[in-house]
Amino acid sequence: MALKFGFNHVATKVKKQLCFSRGTTSAYEEEESCRNEGKMISVASDGSLDRKGNPALKSNCGGWKIANLLLVNQGLATLAFFGVSVNLVLFLTRVLDQDSAEAANNISKWTGTVYLFSLVGAFLSDSYWGRYLTCAIFQFILVLGLVSLSLTTWLLLIKPVGCGDKILLCSKPSSLGVAVFYLSIYLIAFGYGGYQPTIATFGSDQFNELDPKERQSKAVFFGYFYFALNFGSLFSNTILVYFEDSGQWTLGFLASMGSAVIGLALFYVGTPNYRYFQPSGNPLKRVAQVIVAAMRKWNVLPPSNGDKLYEMEGESAIKGCRKILHSDKFGFLDKAATISEKDLSDQTSITINPWRLCTVTQVEEVKCVLKMLPIWLCTIIYSVIFTQMASLFVEQGEVMDTGTGSFNLPAASMSAFDIVSVLIFTGIYGRFVVPITSRFTRNPKGLTELQRMGIGILIGLLAMVAAGVTEMERLKRITSTESTSSLSIFWQIPQYTLVGASEVFMYVGQLEFFNNQAPDGIKSFGSSLCMASMSVGNYVSSLLVNIVMTITTTRNRPGWIPDNLNMGHLHRFYFLIAILAAVDFVIYLFLAKWYKGINLETNDVEEEEDSELEEQVQ
Q: Transmembrane stretches, by residue range (predicted)?
C-alpha cells in the first residue's frame, strides 16, 4: 500500500483543546496561532489517530459523515455477496447437476466457511494490520473472487448460453470448470468473511465512546449497520435473482462484481477522514501467558481482595487499551496476577516475566472471552434457523405454485420478504419498542442486548413452526409425486417475515453485545463472534441434514429431505429445529442471568473534562 499511516507513533490520550485553521499540515504547529485567533477545535479523546498518526481532530475525522460512507460501502459489498449466495443453491442443482440434499449441504459448508473466515480477518485486524488495512485487503480479495466467478461461468460452465433456467439443461461441466468455480466462490467467502466483522468495528470506531453524544451515536450505528446490510441485499434478492433464475447467471455475477468494485472505490475515498486505532498485538500470546502463569502458580492461593493483584501503574500493559477492573468469575485465573515471593525475587527495575506474572487487565481479557463463549454457543441453534433461508426455504418454494398471473416468481426472491421485514421491524423497534420498554426497564436502550437476543430465539422458533405448517399444507395440495403443489408460494411469507423480525432482535443485539463486551484489544474478534455463530450454525445444519437422512432413509424409505420433496417429510425437519430452539432458549435464560458484563476503569477527572469540553464545543 502506498499510504503510510504512521502507526508507529505512540497513541496518547490528549486531554486538551487544539485550534485549527487552513493552510498548515500539523494540528500541533497550528495550536498556538489558532488559540490567539480564538478558534477552538477538540481532539478525539479516545486515543484514535488520523492517517498520519496524529491524534484525530473531531472536525476532520470520524462522525456520521464518514460513518455513512462506510454504511454505503457495506451495502454495496453485501449486494455483491448476496448476488452470488442467494441463488447459489439453484446454480448447483441446475448448472452443476447436484441433487437437493447435496446442494443444501454444499451451501451450508460454503456459507459456514464465509463466516469462519471472519475469525481470520478479526485476528489480523486486532493483532497486526489494523482495521483499515484489513478491510481494504479483504475487499480486494472479494473483487478478485467475483471476477474469477464471472469469467468461469461465462467461459466454462454456461453451455449452451441461457441454460440453467429450469427449461434448458446445461451440458455436463468440465472438471476444470468445476474446480475454478469452487476456487472462485471460496475466494469470495474468504474476502467477504474477513471484511464483514472488521467493517462493523471500523464503523463504530468513528464514534468516541468518551463523548456523551458520540457514545449514543455509536449505539445507534449497529442498527443502521444491519439496516444497510439488508438494504444492500434487497437488490440482490429481487432484481439479480430474477436474471439468474432466467438463466442469465453471468450477467448477475457481473453486476455483483461491479457493486464490489464501486464499494471498494468509495472505501478508499474516505481514507483521509477515518479515525484509526493501533493494533494491540497478538491476543493469542496474551491468552497463553495468562494460562501458563496460572498453571505455574497452581498451588498459589489468590488474595481475597482483588486490589492486591498485580496491575501496572498508568497506562494499560496492552497497547492502546483501557484497563479492566477485577471480576470474581473464573477466579482460578487470578493466580496469573497474584504476586508470589518468586515474582518479587525475579523482579528487576526494568522488566517482569510476563509468562509468570500478568496484569489484572490481561487476566480479565481472558475472562471476558470465557464469559462470552457460553452466550455465543446459545446463538448457534438460531443460526441453524437462519441458514434455512438460503437452502431448504428455496427448495420448498421451488415445488410450490410460483405463478402470479403471467409472471413466475423465482423461489429465491421470496427472501425479499425477510429483508423488508428487517427494514420495517428496525423502524418499529426504534420508534415504538424502545420508548415503551424504556419506561418499564429504566434503560435508555429499552431492552438489554441479552434480552433482545432471547426474544430473537423465540421469534426464530415461531418461524420454524410456520415453515412446518406451510410444508404440511403444501403436501396436501399435490396430485402426484412428480407435480408441483397448487399451494401458492406466498404461503412462505410468514416464515420469511418471522425470520426477519427475529434478526432485528438477535443479530443487532449480537453485534452490540459482542462489540461492547469485548475488551479494546479484541474488538474485531467480538464482532466476528456474530459471524462465527452463523458459520457453526451452517455446519450444524449440514450435520443435522446428514444425521436425519441417515436415520430416515433406512429400509428403502426416501427420508425426510429427499431430492423429490413431494415424497419426503420436510415439515418434520422444521419441527425438529423448533424443538431444539426451545431447549436452547431454556439454557440461554440460565446463562443470561449468570452473565456479568465487562467493567472498564473510568477516570472521573477525564469524564469531567470531557463534559466541560463538550459544553465549550457546543
A: 75-95, 107-125, 132-156, 176-195, 221-243, 249-269, 373-394, 414-432, 453-469, 529-553, 573-591
| HSE-up (13 A, CA, CB side) for residue 322 | 21
Closest CA to 543 of 377, 375, 387, 372: 387
- Long-range contacts, 369-374 (Cβ 8 Å, 24+): 369/287, 369/522, 369/525, 370/329, 370/330, 371/329, 371/330, 371/517, 371/595, 371/596, 372/514, 372/517, 372/518, 372/526, 372/529, 374/591, 374/594, 374/595
Cell numbers at residue 3, please? 499510504
C-alpha pair distances (Å), 300 with each of 291, 294, 325, 587: 14, 9, 21, 34
Q: Identify the CA nearest to 122 among candidates 279, 270, 287.
A: 279
CA dist 601 and 326 (Å) reads 10
Question: Are the C-beta atoms of 423 and 515 separated by less than 8 Å?
Answer: no
Handedness of CA 561, 565, 567, 568 (dihedral sign): positive
What DSSP string runs through 381-447? HHHHHHHGGGTHHHHHHHTSB-EETTEEPPGGGGHHHHHHHHHHHHHHIIIIIHHHHHHHH--TTSS
pTM over 0.85: no
Indicate the helix (H) or strand (E) that contains 196: helix 175-204
pLDDT profile of the chain (618 residues), mean per 10: 36 36 36 41 65 82 89 93 85 84 80 82 89 94 95 88 79 88 93 90 86 78 84 80 80 92 94 88 90 90 85 78 87 89 60 84 92 94 89 87 80 85 88 87 84 95 96 87 83 94 90 87 84 84 90 86 86 95 96 90 50 39
Q: Which residues pair with 43 in a beta bridge?
A: 57
Which domains does the chain carry? 52-279 (1.20.1250.20), 283-364 (no CATH), 365-597 (1.20.1250.20)
Place of cell 483521509: 272
CB-hemisphere CA count at 13 Å for 447? 22
